[in-house]
Structure formats: structure tokens, C-alpha cells
Amino acid sequence: MLRTILMGSCVYVQGTFVRNLADGKIVVRVGNRLYQGLPVLAKVAA
Asked: How far apart are CA 39 and CA 46, in angstroms?
């Protein structure tokens, strides 16, 4: 499943979900590199 994370104030990374971390961050894989950051939540239009 593809997930998007926020790294820093305006750097986003999209990759394959790997795992949740205890501090609320998640890890995604892009190629053979792993990135961790805060998940970007989807906005649902009402």
C-alpha cells in the first residue's frame, strides 16, 4: 500500500508502507531506501 509521509516542514515522500513506529511515525520504502516521518492523512470531502 502506498503511503505519504511528511519529513521536515515541506518535504513529502511517497512509498510502500513498511511499519508503524511507537512515536506515531511510519516507515516507507522507496526502491531500496527507507524513510520515516509523520503520515499524511487523507481529507474526505463532506
From this structure: 22
Indicate the residue type of 6.
L
Phi/psi of residue 3, nearest 5 degrees = -135, 150
- DSSP symbol at 24: S
Q: Into how many domains does the chain fold?
A: 1
List the grid coordinates of 29: 520504502
**Residue 18 is assigned to a structural domain of this protein:** yes
Q: What is the pLDDT of residues 1-36, one digit of tens each?
A: 999 999 988 999 999 999 999 999 999 999 999 999
Cell of 22: 511507537
User: How is residue 26 written as a grid cell?
Assistant: 511510519
Check: pTM over 0.70? Answer yes or no. yes
